[in-house]
Design goal:
single chain, 126 residues, mainly alpha, three-stranded antiparallel sheet, elongated
């Protein structure tokens, strides 16, 4: 008579594959997550500590005076000042910006919903 052997359980097969192929276990992943959190915390502390003392490791950027506006704000103000709408050449004359820069600003303001086209080439505030 031949002896019947039992087939290994599913859990035993999973453990075998984990050990044989070096799969990460839940414990391994949790350890990695803990180490990453510790590294993030130490990085945060390293960058926040110089700012709290008033010192920074990087070169300080010069701040622009508060009275100066961005190019987008300048164009938006020109469009707002024109009650019935304003065209491209009038905006260019008032701001002095180059064509490409002005076209990009108008496109961006339109996408942001700050200006609308009254008709082709005439811009009004939204």
């Amino acid at each position: 008579m031949t002896k019947r052997t039992r087939s290994p359980s599913f859990d035993a097969m999973v453990k075998f594959f984990q050990q044989h192929y070096n799969f990460a276990t839940k414990q391994d992943i949790n350890l990695l997550v803990d180490k990453i959190e510790q590294l993030e915390k130490s990085i945060k502390e390293a960058f926040l500590a110089p700012q709290q003392t008033g010192r920074t490791k990087t070169a300080k950027k010069k701040k622009a005076p508060l009275s100066k506006q961005s190019a987008s704000d300048t164009v938006l103000d020109v469009i707002i000042d024109a009650k019935t709408g304003i065209n491209f050449t009038q905006i260019k004359a008032k701001t002095g910006f180059e064509d490409k820069k002005l076209r990009n600003i108008i496109y961006r303001l339109g996408k942001l919903g700050k200006i609308k086209n009254k008709k082709r080439g005439i811009y009004i505030p939204a």
